[in-house]
Amino acid sequence: MSEELIRQDSPDHMKIERLKREEVLKGSILTYCRDTVRLPDGQLREWDFIRHQGAAAVLPVDEQGRLILVRQYRNAFDRFMLELPAGGLESPEEDTKEAALRELKEETGFTAEKIQPLLRFYPTVAYSGEKIDIYLATGLSESERSLDPDEYINVEAWERETLLDMIYNGELNDGKTIAAILAYDCGRQSGRFT
C-alpha cells in the first residue's frame, strides 16, 4: 500500500470530546441517548448512541464436529434467522462465560465439558456500545432446555463447510454467527482448535 494512502494524524489533531450524554428513552434492554461532542475543528455535533449492557454467545461443536446453531424469529427482519445461542447479560457485572453457559443450556439443552474464549465482537460500533463475548463449547452433553416464554427456537446441527458456503452465498446473515464461524475455521486451520 502506498504511503500516500495512509495518513496518521497526531492524537491532538484527532481529539474528539464528548461534552454531554442525555438519556432520551429507556427500554427493557436498550437505552437511547443523544451525545453532544466537540470535533477536532471545534464544531459541536449531536450523535446518537444506544447503551446495551452486553451479551454472551456460544459456538457449540459436537463430537462429530458439527456446529450447533439455533433458528429463531427475529422481529427486526420479520423472519427466522440461523444464529449462535446467545443472550443479553442479566447485569453489566455478570461473567460472560457464565452467561454463555446459561444460554447454551437454555436454548439448546446442552451443557459443555469445555468452554474457551473464541472472540469479542462489537456488532455496531457506529452507534452502540454493545459487545458480545463469544465462546467455543465442546464436550457437549444433553440436558433440559428452559426457553423464555416468548422464545420459539429450533436447534440444528450443521457441517462447518456447509455453513462456510452459506456465509459466502449470502444465506447466513447474522453478524456474530458469521464472525464466530470464521474465527473457529481460522483457529482450526492454525491448529488453535482441533
Explain how this protein is built:
The structure is a single chain. The chain has three helices and ten strands. It is of the alpha+beta class. Helix 2 crosses helix 3 (175-190). It is globular and about 60 Å long. The chain has helices at 96-108, 160-168, 175-190, and strands at residues 17-26, 30-38, 44-52, 55-60, 67-74, 79-83, 86-88, 110-121, 132-142, 153-158. It has two domains: 8-52, no CATH class; 55-190, Nucleoside Triphosphate Pyrophosphohydrolase (Alpha-Beta Complex). 20% of the residues are buried. A hairpin with a 4-residue loop joins strand 5 (67-74) and strand 6. A four-stranded mixed β-sheet has the order 7-4-9-8, with helices on both faces. Strands 1-2-3 form a three-stranded antiparallel β-sheet, with no helix packed on it. It has a three-stranded antiparallel β-sheet with strand order 6-5-10.
